[in-house]
Amino acid sequence: MRIVIIGGGAAGMSAASKAKRINADSEVIVYDSGGFVSYAECGIPYFLGGKIDDYGKLIHYPITEFTEKRGIIVRTNTSVSSINPEKKEIFFDNGTSESYDRLIICTGASPKVPQKFKDSGALAIRTLDSGIDIRKKLKPGMKVTIIGDGVLGMELASTLKEGGYGTRLISHHSDLFPRISREISRQFLEDFRNEIEVELESEILAIEKTNSNFTVKTSKGTHESGIVIFATGIVPNTSFLKGSSIETTSTGLIRTNELMQTNFPDIYAAGDCATSRNIVTGKESWNPLAQVSNKMGRVAGSNAAGERMIFPGSIGTTLVKIFDYEVGFAGLALDESIKASFNAKRTTVKARSRAAYYEGGSEIWVEIIYDVKSGKLLGSQIISKDGGAWRLNAVASAIQAGLTVEDLFYTDFGYTPPFGPVWDPIIIAASLSMK
Ligand SMILES: Cc1cc2nc3c(=O)[nH]c(=O)nc-3n(C[C@H](O)[C@H](O)[C@H](O)COP(=O)(O)OP(=O)(O)OC[C@H]3O[C@@H](n4cnc5c(N)ncnc54)[C@H](O)[C@@H]3O)c2cc1C
């Protein structure tokens, strides 16, 4: 059996490895349009900020690990331009084609850069190649303009500032980092603004290249910048499916079932280019995240190779380090919960991250969102300089398991003064929500 995988990122290489492990006799071939496979996109902001000196450290495994040790065929710099699902054939940019028995599409996503700025010389990050290109352009002390205040924009602003670059962040939003609720983000955003020049409610009107610099004209002013980076979201890499009868959503995501199977039983899709299920709402959703992609890839690889696995979906648990803050959210925000017809409420707790008498620690803000009638946990957001990440992951497990605020209150978390107060902020938030 020939299993062909398009895309050698998180989902693609997980799919390939699992398929080959399950069915050693199968021929597993991965095609990737870039020069690398199996690398850590998530490490690129730290490579740009200089925390990681060598991009080679971001490569999880050299290609030989797959070709020589795992028996997988890997073809880099090979772009798939179309698919004929009826004839089970894929076509390459160079005019050649390949047949398959099972196909797994793992082509990821690309940065969403407004059409009018595509040729402006402004940059965007996605692949390792793009990260290497940006790092070459960064010069010590250079002024960097980041457009977008989502997770990537905030993370980049912080890593580049820490790397010694003058950093400006521009957003059209009226509030910075709107995914995080204002109730818990005030101090964190104040600290961020002390480090980064922030321009809100601003539209980019023009980006002009002048010698080696850029002039960015916005609705609020004119800024000089060494480089300009767009972090304004992503779109799935599925345009090559146009004209095929593989089912996609209105936003171009490949529609999959819990086996990661498309409307063609022999074609699977996984990672950022595909839909999955939101565990809280039970509805079709998109969570373009590294762990989610790896797991979707593994499930797709297993099913394609003949061993049934089910992907239950995800709750979009997201962690990001912004300066010294550990910031995270999981499940639904309050407005999303209300939109999904829950009778939702939130509880916000500000406390200390360790026992009051124990050295160190910091303030911690915990928000939990729950359904008033059932008590079911719907979402959480946590910010702290100490222990924010582990707490968010703990609450994420509870949300995913469908637990209630009462279940969370009685969850038997370990306690010792250096790691938390005896009434942990999570437990306090649960307790207040039970009233
Ligand atoms: C800078 C950055 C930081 C991130 N940080 C985090 C983080 O901290 N935590 C987190 O959970 N997630 C993070 N993510 C998201 C995470 O990296 C992605 O969700 C994950 O890599 C998606 O895996 P994937 O396999 O779907 O796509 P990718 O890993 O992007 O792989 C897709 C591959 O498909 C190839 N390809 C595309 N089109 C074609 C074609 N037509 N033919 C052949 N090959 C093709 C591409 O070259 C690429 O190698 C980050 C992403 C970026 C860009």
Rounded radius of gyration (Å): 23 Å
**Global shape:** globular
Note poorly predicted spans.
none
**Which CATH first-tier class of the largest domain would you pick?**
Alpha Beta
Order of strands side by side in the largest beta sheet? 3-2-1-7-18
Name the helicity range. 25-40%
Count of separate DSSP helical elements: 11
How many strands in all?
A: 25
Question: Based on helices, strands and strand pairing, what is the structural class?
Answer: alpha/beta
The small-molecule ligands in this entry are: flavin-adenine dinucleotide
Share of β-strand residues: 25-35%
What is the typical, i.e. mean, pLDDT? 97
Total domains: 3
> CATH superfamily name of the largest domain?
FAD/NAD(P)-binding domain
Question: Quick recap of the structure?
Answer:
With 435 residues, this protein is α/β, with parallel strands linked by helices.
Main traits of this protein?
FAD/NAD(P)-binding domain; binds flavin-adenine dinucleotide; 435 residues; 3 domains; single chain; alpha/beta; 25 strands; 5-stranded parallel sheet
Task: Break the fold down into its secondary structure elements and pairings.
Elements lengths: L1 E5 L3 H13 L4 E5 L12 H5 L14 H7 L3 E3 L4 E5 L4 E4 L4 E3 L2 E4 L3 E3 L11 E2 L3 H10 L5 E5 L3 H12 L3 E5 L11 H14 L1 E3 L4 E7 L2 E6 L3 E4 L1 E4 L3 E3 L30 E3 L6 E2 L6 E2 L4 H16 L12 E5 L2 E7 L2 H6 L4 E9 L10 E9 L5 E8 L3 H13 L4 H6 L14 H10 L1
Parallel strand pairs: 1-2, 1-7, 2-3, 7-18, 9-16, 10-11, 10-16, 11-12
Antiparallel strand pairs: 4-5, 5-6, 8-17, 13-14, 14-15, 19-20, 21-22, 22-25, 23-24, 24-25
Bound molecules: flavin-adenine dinucleotide.
